[in-house]
Amino acid sequence: MKFFEGCTALITGASSGFGSEFARQLAPRARALVLVARRNDRLEALRAELAEKFPELAVFIYAADLADEGARAGLARWLHEQGIAVDFLVNNAGLGDHGDFETSDWDRVRAMIAVNVSALTHLTHLLLPSLRSSGRAAILNVSSVASFFPVPNMAVYSATKAYVTSLSEALRMELRDTGVSVTALCPGPVRTEFFDVAARPGDEGKTPHFESMPLFQVTPAEAVHAGLEAVARDRARVVPGPVLAVAVAIAMLVPFFIVRQVIQAGRGRI
Ligand SMILES: NC(=O)c1ccc[n+]([C@@H]2O[C@H](COP(=O)([O-])OP(=O)(O)OC[C@H]3O[C@@H](n4cnc5c(N)ncnc54)[C@H](OP(=O)(O)O)[C@@H]3O)[C@@H](O)[C@H]2O)c1
């Protein structure tokens, strides 16, 4: 993990789950962290926790709704004004929506596309000049194992993550030889606040059936560690957890008409 010594990392979605964990795992090595999310109280609490443990570390917080294009531009302006040169961008903020597409709430669908797709793309576009000029930089996009297969009942979510994995792979090739690496972290279901946020009113706590897939389980800390290790090793993508990684690798060799049948048969379990 020497790669992260003295880095300046910007982490979106740092108020909970993977995002807070990225901050905790980078804190011992980074020079500065920029923590971004909407819930300022959570960011303040994380800053206080990190400042106490790592007095040398500079921790900046920036409360913003990343669904808002103007707020994203405002963040880039603020970084410029503060003289903060980001050399590690962690595009982690994201949300899901669990249930069939037809009955989905349009505002929620729009927010999901705005955060998972537009914010990730826009922030990458805004920060790329700074990343390039640092000589050696990295982008870690938090995608999902759902990016490899369509997921009924999370149709838009899995489509947004297919976009994230595809964009990451293409940018990685475009940016080859620029000193900027791009990695996609593709976790399976992990216990964070994600599924509480994704649940529709009345369905809280119903998804997913974590106990039915113990072999695939990793903790948020393990998923984040796998992502950081993949960046340090300049890997294109990583699926955290050896059993899930092998299962995905095998599933991707299976003809899609069979995969489609299996997903259809398992509909409703995820
Ligand atoms: N947990 C899983 O099973 C799983 C599996 C695969 C991939 N992922 C991906 O991992 C990433 C992190 O999810 P998580 O599991 O850590 O879930 P989480 O605990 O719900 O965290 C989501 C983070 O995104 C932030 N966020 C959401 N909407 C935002 C907005 N409009 N503006 C700014 N920040 C926003 C939230 O902050 P605020 O609410 O404070 O704004 C929060 O910090 C997501 O991209 C998710 O798709 C999760």
Structure notes:
Strands 3-2-1-4-5-6-7 form a seven-stranded parallel β-sheet, sandwiched between helices. Helix 4 packs parallel to helix 5 (155-174). The chain is globular and about 55 Å long. It has a single domain (2-265), classed as NAD(P)-binding Rossmann-like Domain (Rossmann fold, 3-Layer(aba) Sandwich). It contains nine helices and seven strands, in the order E-H-E-H-E-H-E-H-E-H-E-H-H-E-H-H. The chain is an alpha/beta fold and 270 residues long. The structure holds NADP nicotinamide-adenine-dinucleotide phosphate. Residues 13, 15-19, 37-39, 42, 65-67, 92-95, 115, 142, 144, 187, 189-190, 192-194, 197 line the site of NADP nicotinamide-adenine-dinucleotide phosphate (NAP). NADP nicotinamide-adenine-dinucleotide phosphate is lined by residues 13, 15-19, 37-39, 42, 65-67, 92-95, 115, 142, 144, 187, 189-190, 192-194, 197.
Topology at a glance:
Blueprint: E1 8-12, H1 17-26, E2 32-37, H2 40-53, E3 58-63, H3 69-82, E4 88-91, H4 106-133, E5 137-142, H5 155-174, E6 180-185, H6 194-198, H7 220-232, E7 237-238, H8 242-251, H9 256-265
Parallel strand pairs: 1-2, 1-4, 2-3, 4-5, 5-6, 6-7
The protein binds NADP nicotinamide-adenine-dinucleotide phosphate.
